[in-house]
Predict the structure of ABC transporter permease.
Amino acid sequence: MFGYYFKLGVRSLRRNPALTALMVITLAVGVAASMSTLTILHMMSGDPIPQKSQRLFVPVLDSGPKEGWSPGQDPDDIQMTYRDATNLYDAGKVGERRAIIYGVSMAVEPERKDLGAFSEQGLAATHDIFQMFEVPFKYGQPWTAAEDKGAADVVVLSTGLAERLFGNVNPVGKRVRMKGVSWQVVGVADHWKPLPRYYHIISGNGEYGEEEGFYVPFATAIRHETQHSGSMNCNERNAIPGFNGILQSNCTWIQFWIEAASAGDRGDVSSYLDNYVHEQNRMGRFPRNQPAKLYNVMEWLDLNKVVGNDNRLAVWLAFGFLALCLVNTIGLLLAKFSVRAPEVGIRRALGASRREIFTQFLIETAVVGLVGGAIGLTLAYGTLGLLSMGSESMKNLAHMDASMLALTLVLSIAAAILAGLLPTWRACQVTPALQLKSQ
């Protein structure tokens, strides 16, 4: 019976083409507007590393002065000082892995004559970053712990930068000149662009920007006095000038990550950090002596307001527009079904029950929703394509995955059925005797 009613629904689309086209287009526009904004929000707010997000943590230590501070006040900054980052990293007593990260920008001097010098964004990090964040490799491998400790002049290139410098070949073992230093290529990271870029969302390429161009050892970047590319908060004047003064100061400019064995180890990590704060307080640092704060990946994204209220408001407005389209669709369906009152009366007189009439008309509205969803999906793709031309960040966000594709079709059919409930119920109330008498 379902198949028969479905065929009737398809035929009804041709019965009044102008009215049907108006319903389908109204529904399609509403679905396209709502799904375009929902798709972008979905990409922005997704878990970038679901298999590990509950056991990757960012510690925030309050190293600010006590003057002008009141208990319960948030830390002045959520980054970390060089001294604290290296202390926690070298201690090796917390978590399975630890990673120090800061953004850098270097001038690249290609050997190719057809390429001029250009600036590239990258990361200075400890070697654990690759295994911690599951960075895939196309060629080679990360630098070793010994190269990390020895501050070796080695580099891991992104696939994009490697192809730009050397073409489509394996460049491992070759050298590239950056910042006036000759670096040996030890690996090439395959395309790795988690959204959002949770591992380095403060400054750098932004939450949804392009992948890093290169990675160099943290100790090597410090040895070459490579300035950070990003924000820095200094709540006191440095007593020592120059780069060395920054390293010994309480300026916060480094991001530090801890990978625990499981999410259940969060308490142990917090206890270790609190003990570290108390120890430093006894040495004259951390005058506020506040407990350390710990954030997993999703909490870290929320703290940094990666998904703003404006983005959520845009989705609500889009779904409000869809509701308005549904109201118009209800009116059009009422007009469409009212014309068919004589048909309903004859069917009722021949023995069709109200339930059968209700089912038939509801399936017909589902057919409208299916066609509207297909057109709405096409419009949504077009809208996302236009949005992707606006910026690099939007280019990375404005595309549908399989779940959003399925949701678009389901939403369209569900919206059409919802809009058809009232007109269908009205159609079932037709009195057969009155319709037969009027014929």
